[in-house]
Amino acid sequence: MTCKNCKTNPVITLTNSNVKLCKSCFVKYFERKVAKGIEKYKIIEKNDKISIACSGGKDSFTLLYLLNKYAEKKKSIEILVIAIDEGIHGYRDLKLLERYCKDNKLPLYVYSYKKEFGDSLDGILKKNPIRSCSICGVLRRFLLNSKARELGANKLATGHNLDDEAQSIIMNTFKGNLKRSAILGPITGIVKDKRFVRRIKPLYFMLEKEVKTYAFLKNFPVKFSECPYSNDAYRGEIRDYLNEIENKHPGTKHAIVNSFLDILPILKERFKNETINSCNICGEPCSGNICNVCKLLEKVNLKRKPTKT
Ligand code: SF4
Ligand SMILES: [Zn+2]
Ligand SMILES: [Zn+2]
After folding, report:
1. What string of pLDDT tens digits covers the 309 residues of the chain?
2. Ligand with an atom nearest the CA of residue 85
3. Whole domain around residue 66: which residue ranges?
């Protein structure tokens, strides 16, 4: 079988249509589909200042490359890059990202747990019997939001793809947590609050397999390694389960996300009156009296550097 358009060797078969595409047709298909999602859901608008969260993985390099291209075309858009160094020996290495940003004249801001909270993730986990991903995820989300805000960005772009979204929808459904699903979507959040920088997911409609293929064909300097602390076992189980079903019934992941998008406006409406409080300790937005960051830092005996609002 050859490429549907130009009869040369295919590099991928699109899961939901069984169409085969060669390298150049796939690259065009991928870029067009990302651009279409951005336009349709108004993920990026005129005069946006977008802070791009980058870990140096395939998703974030793809995101960075495409948003840079987009910003070059739409002159009113400004982009900057934020990377978080958790302090994981032998794993988090931002050198390739630093080189890429320098070569492409992209402003890069790196923040470390060590500087911002007083210890690296390695150090925290050595001293405290605590689940790695739960503390790491909370600290990273906090830094990305507060630093994007400090840098004057009105949007924070992340590299989440369609597989990530399908997993989150299923996990929240299985756990009966509709409120958590209400914050999902190509633009996250329910209630607007100036302390929250709106999170956007430009790769929302792209399968993980497609992002991987695109990053490989584009030869991005991606380092493929797994975090030694990764312990989100439930997400791993759901990921394997969805991959298995997708193999048997191609198109399942798209169907999950598309039907979710149909009910998302109802979910957002249902939870739109949720109040946002201010943390009694740090003043950051939270649902209770003390935010998750303060609760976790107290547990591990650390303090964070004050942030500018
Ligand atoms: S896998 Fe878990 S511990 Fe490792 S970087 Fe991701 S959130 Fe942090
Ligand atoms: Zn072709
Ligand atoms: Zn707090």
Report:
1. 899 889 899 999 988 788 999 999 999 999 999 999 999 999 999 999 999 999 989 999 999 999 999 999 988 999 999 999 999 998 888 999 999 999 999 999 999 999 999 999 999 999 998 889 989 999 999 999 999 999 999 999 999 999 999 999 999 999 999 999 999 999 998 878 888 999 999 999 999 999 999 999 999 988 777 888 887 778 999 999 999 999 999 999 999 999 999 999 999 999 988 888 899 998 888 888 999 999 999 999 888 776 655
2. 1
3. 34-274
Tell me, in angstroms, the distance from the centre of ligand 1 to residue 231's CA. Answer: 8
Distances, alpha carbon 196 to alpha carbons 83, 191, 204, 248, in Å: 18, 9, 20, 40
Query: Does residue 195 fall inside a structural domain?
Result: yes
**Residue 197 belongs to a domain:** yes
Question: Nearest bound ligand to CA 290?
Answer: 3
Take atom 2 of ligand 1 and give the residue whose Cα is closest: 133
86 lines ligand 1 (CB under 6 A): yes
Strand order in the sheet with 78-85: 108-112, 78-85, 49-53, 155-157, 198-200
CATH number at residue 81: 3.40.50.620
Measure the CA–CA gap between 139 and 135, rounded to whole angstroms: 6
Give domain status of residue 299, yes or no: no
Q: What's the domain count of the chain?
A: 1
Q: Does residue 215 form part of some domain?
A: yes
